[in-house]
Amino acid sequence: MEYIEQGSKNDILYWSKRIYQKGMSPSVSGNISVKIKDGILISASGTCLNDMDENDIVLIDYSGNLLSGGKKPSSEKILHSEIYTRRDDINAVIHCHCPVITAFAVAGVELKKPILPDFALMYEKVPLVPYYCPSSIELASAVGEYFEKHDCVLLKNHGVVVGDKTLQNAFYKLEFLRAYAETYFGAEVLGGARALSKKDISYIRKVYKNK
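RESULT FIELD:
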């Protein structure tokens, strides 16, 4: 178990820096976690993801209680535990305030327009969770409910949450959503983001279904 926990901490440190250095988690915003046998490893409250070290990662149980570590766990700890409780297939969660993705959340716009083949293949939509106070039980519960059918959600006037089997996969998912959001904005400036046709979408999903 010692090796598994240490390896998971190393993953958190590596991908946290990637998230920050891509400009997706400014200042001390955002939090990151992985599920291990003994509980949930999660970033400590008030931590800059770029400057984290092992002391900034703590172990909590599924009720948010601190099991080990010398710092206070992220204030969004219950949000993370809700996702893990509802989804056995998710082992890693990233929550951040990526500006270009969060702009959609602030505008109250779901990510659903199929302007790119990859988006049409991967998603029907990335839904928008109604606004609840950050770190609240109400927010955690709402996110958990959305995650029963989705792996990515926007938090109205707040940010974005993604989950996957590994932190690597969750990071790639987050990075793709940022690229999608940037492309959408750019296309709108240039005259309008035009969606793929239903015929094109159907063909894409058919061709890549078994790849």
